[in-house]
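3.2 Worked example (two chains)
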Amino acid sequence: MIRVKILLSICILVTFSTDIFAQRKTKSEESEEVYKSFTSFGVTTNTNSGILGGAVFRKSNLMSSTLFGKNQYRYLAVELVNVKHPKEQAQSFNTGARFTFGKENYLFVLRPEYGRELALFNRHDDEGISISAILAAGPSIGFEKPYMIQKQVSGGRVQTVPVKIDPSSPVDPYENFVGVGSFFSGFGQSKVVPGLHVKAALSFELSAFRENVTGVEIGFLAEGFTRKIEIMGYADNKSVYTSGFITLYFGSKK
């Protein structure tokens, strides 16, 4: 469903921007808006996450050189996202809590990024939209956090433990299962898995005000880790992930 929404959004934005460019051809190039720096915060969703995939901080600074006659910017960003396995399927437990059978770990990824942003089309005064192309790369710092569940132990006590699944073992990992642990439990047992990523995107600035900016970044990302991330115990896990994403951002420029 998210993949379909991304493709539809791309088609709508491209169609909308093409119509605007056709209307702007008679305007003078001298009226195009050029900014020196742009800072924004945003929320993102992608094909490997839920509706809310994570948060993003972006900053672009104008460079003295141009590329293909277009202004280019030094692009810096930091993303923190939650990556899910395609086989994850949450269900309601009898207490009302959400439970994902077979899940062993969460995967949170911190992505510092460095790259270039190329201004393809600039706005004219306060009219229309700006479109830029982004190519960035950087490290992927994966945090493999245990998925915690509650089990009843001797004496009727309830203990919160990580899920440990071994398909070849006759031991039931959900024996005496009574509920799901707190989301914040288990962070101290997280493992760090390093990796790398690269992304390509188009940024559409939709704001009607010169200094305050609202925009959408749409693109694709690929990243690889040094080992497989054990997200699901009864499914094939992988070390390389690809995704399409949409980021809605808000910020200001000078």
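3.2.1 Second chain
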Amino acid sequence: MSETMIHSSSAPVLLTITDGIAEIRFNRPEVLNAVDVTTAIAFRDAVAAASADPATRVILLTAAGRAFIAGGDLAFFRAAGEKAPDAARELIGPIHDAVEGLATAPQPVLASLHGAVAGAGMSVALAADLAIAADNAVFNMAYAKVGNSPDCSASWTLPRLVGLRKAMEIIMLSDNLDAAEALRLGLVNRVVPLASLEEETRKLARRLADSAPLALRSIKRLLRDSGSRSLHAQLDEEAAQFAGNAGSADFREALEAFFGKRKPKFEGR
């Protein structure tokens, strides 16, 4: 077992790396994990540390308390007054770095969602590669309700998940979406009872951590980059990735395990 702890328990974002699972935990439960500048910076730093650690096989996003993230910290913007544009840039800069870090991280990113998943919280959830939600999760883009437009990549991720027309509806009307509707729309991969969320999240994270790291890295990049390539270019990249992975020890281990009728043990090389 390997374990790395980053940040004190009172920090707004906690990072723990244990047995290949890098858990990034939002830790402002008293304000439903609303994102202020300190939280955004801590999130950015945690993503950078988790993705760069060679022990990390999967990045897991979780949150303390009754909600995942209720959105940006509106009190921060109110206090900024006429300097709200500068305050917005101060907050958005690091959290956008974090979101881009999740997208470019070689590891798969799994979000575990419960309670309010709103505004920036919904945007961050959409930025993950996979998402599991408790049956009490409530999703709301919320931006239009506070007189603003999306950040944290929601305007990029949401139309790719649900289509342009539905994305317009979800963002412009900002109606609540329950967990069942989020599952139907493809915003999450699984919905489980709240009491089972932690257990089911750990099971899914463990499956990802035990899978072949090089293969998952290739899968993530192929899928995330596919929208910017022609079919011919994508076929070329698929061939390059497959051939490259075919020379790995993990691929040889997978073949031996298959013919030996046993479970493979992947080492990421």
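3.3 Remarks
The chain is about 50% helix and 15% strand.
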